[in-house]
Amino acid sequence: MQCKVCGANGAEAHFGGESCRACAAFFRRYVHSQKLVIECTCLHRLPSSHPCRHCRMEKCIATGMTMCKVQGNREKNKVRGYYPGYLPVISTLPTSVIPKSCDNILRTVANWVDLDQTRKQLRGENFFDHNLTQVTKLSKMDSKLLWDLGEVIFSDVSKFNSFDKDSMIANFFPKWIIMECAIDYSLNQEQFQSFIGSIEYYKKCAHFYGSSMPEEKRLDDEDTIKIFSKFWDWHYSEIAHPIFLKKFDKIEYMAIFLLLLFDSAYMNISDDGVKLCQNIRKVILRELQGYQSDKNCSRYRLAETVDTVRLLEKAEGKLQEESVLCEFHNLEIDEDHKKIFQIKKI
């Protein structure tokens, strides 16, 4: 079998592609290279010479070789190296470790299929027609299903005490509600563009909130729309559309899910819980960085992905503002849902 990089005989599987041992060794050295930038030098070489390191590396990647399958150097005092895709903006990420795979994120993607089916059964066929009261009645079970997935992916999750677990769900769930709405918008953007601002859009808003009020205290549809439609408008313009423009794929969406679930930036978690979250997040960030590097994403892609978490924190504040108005106008909200939203977050 011929090497798909240089054409030499004796090719075999290396790092996900097929090449000779010489090209495999070159690929490994390139990944471990400490040079910040490696540019094409073919214009300065003789026509009869071999391709430059840059072009040879591109051929390696074209055969299917991936950087995440190269093991890190084992020298005890190794100088931290930089490779294409390295992002210095993430200070918590160990730069000396090159991820072998993104197994945990991939397992989340794989398990999400069954989880999605379970959640659809929980919500029923007519979930789109539910009002706010009906939606909030599902929060306790829905948040438990999502937490259970985290425990399937990372067995150490079982070590969190019950207080930390409740706090982490309260920290996570409101932001994930917002994120799922943004994902739905991203997957159906053309339909949403024609729906937002339409008569049907405002009718849906009036039903969602109005039918959740006690009959004797229900506002007329015009007032309901005036009070609550601004939150829908803000969400779609300030959150959903910016996330749509990022063009995330399912691996990146699942990475965001895990980063939200194991957010260590709250003071309502014990010190042991914070440390465990930080360790899990390092694994997620390392896997995500390796995945995006293999896809030859922009060197700012990881920062853009992590920044989505900050965007959702901003949106959570708006959601809390909406919750206050719902309470003021006597909307019937499930008690378990209230408990999730009312846990103290610092």
Automatic annotation (TrEMBL):
One of its GO terms (biological process) is innate immune response. Residues 1-72 form the Nuclear receptor domain. InterPro entries: Nhr-150, NHR-like_dom_sf, Nucl_hrmn_rcpt_lig-bd, Znf_hrmn_rcpt, Znf_NHR/GATA. Its main location: nucleus. Keywords: DNA-binding, Metal-binding, Nucleus, Receptor, Transcription, Transcription regulation, Zinc, Zinc-finger. The keyword Metal-binding applies. It is found in: Nucleus. It holds the Pfam family Hormone_recep. One of its GO terms (cellular component) is nucleus. PROSITE patterns: NUCLEAR_REC_DBD_1, NUCLEAR_REC_DBD_2. One of its GO terms (molecular function) is sequence-specific DNA binding. Belongs to the nuclear hormone receptor family. This is Nuclear receptor domain-containing protein. It comes from Caenorhabditis elegans.
